[in-house]
Amino acid sequence: SASGGSKYYCQTTCYYSLDKDKTSQYKKWYGNAAKELGLSGDVKDNEFKKILEGKIEYNNEKIHLGNRREGEIDHSPGRDLTFAAPKSVSLQHNLEGGDKRIKNALIKAAENTLEYVQDNFVYTRVKQDGKVSLEKTDNIAAALFYENLNRDKEFHDHVHCVVANLTQRKDGTWRSTELRRIFDNQIHIGKVFRMELAFNLRSLGYDLEVSDKENYFFEIKGFDKKLSENFSERTQNILIKAKELNRDLNVKVRQLANFLTRNPDKKITPNDLKILTDNKIEN
């Protein structure tokens, strides 16, 4: 709905605004669509705002993407794919005397993962002769925001990759993206990111130990677990909430626990439970 899109938009732009208390340490554009639109280098607030609203300028033409309904345009802003480093990796980077090369390894892993998304999951709907089909477009416009703290001000290296809801067809026209392909593959995409990050860390000389083979969760081998626990109050809160929800502490239960601990006043609704059973929580 239009109101839902506006809500997402407000939350996103407020979170990523250039407010001094929430300034990201890295803001860059990425993707073939971004290049085609002349978006490169640092992400500027006004550019980001327009892109999320579906407002673009191309070949001297102003375009506003979205569905026209009763004189208004309904446009979903996009998807926020968040890629996070394991706790031991964040601490190895951020503690005094830490390895500053890790930041670049994390960002590079996020960029490579976005390239994978761009090459495999970007489509748009095409209507011809009354029939709707999907056209693979292979181009995205994404804004990358790197941060090293979580909401509780604990060290937590992560990259928000906001994939805008726009793409260019082969005939040159601009359309909204069929986002469900990305949405449905988010758990797989998260695994790809962790494999990319692991490769980059091994290239830096780190030995890693895998804690979850199916989803490829890992930590730096030999890292002091007590040290990680001392810097992981939020992680512990999420684990406690997850155990309250379900004895099976799978990825989706942890994701719901993560959401509920971010929003302590939120009550569990039938829709939350449906999300769990439908396996549609974002990664």
Walkthrough of the structure:
This protein has a 4-stranded antiparallel sheet. Strands 2-3 form a two-stranded antiparallel ribbon. Strands 4-5 form a two-stranded antiparallel ribbon. It is globular. It is about 40% helix and about 25% strand. With about 280 residues, the protein is of the alpha+beta class. Helix 5 packs antiparallel against helix 7 (about 185-205) and helix 9 packs across helix 10. A hairpin with a 4-residue loop joins strand 13 and strand 14.
Keywords:
283 residues; alpha+beta; two-stranded antiparallel sheet; 11 helices; 14 strands; 42% helix
Whole-number mean pLDDT: 81
Q: What is the number of E strands?
A: 14
Class inferred from helices and paired strands: alpha+beta
Distance between the termini: 23 Å
- The poorly predicted ranges are 1-23, 275-283
The strand line-up of the biggest sheet is 1-9-10-6
As a whole number of angstroms, the C-alpha radius of gyration is: 20 Å
Largest sheet: 4 strands, antiparallel
Shape, principal axes of CA atoms: globular
Helical content class: 40-55%
Order of helices and strands: HEHHEEEEEHHEEEEEEHHEEHHHH
Beta percentage is 15-25%
Brief overview, please?
The protein is an alpha+beta fold.
Per-chain topology:
Elements: H1 2-15, E1 26-30, H2 32-36, H3 45-52, E2 55-58, E3 61-64, E4 67-69, E5 72-74, E6 78-84, H4 87-94, H5 101-120, E7 123-128, E8 131-136, E9 142-149, E10 155-164, E11 167-168, E12 174-175, H6 180-184, H7 186-203, E13 208-212, E14 217-220, H8 225-230, H9 233-245, H10 251-262, H11 270-278
Antiparallel strand pairs: 1-9, 2-3, 4-5, 6-10, 7-8, 9-10, 11-12, 13-14
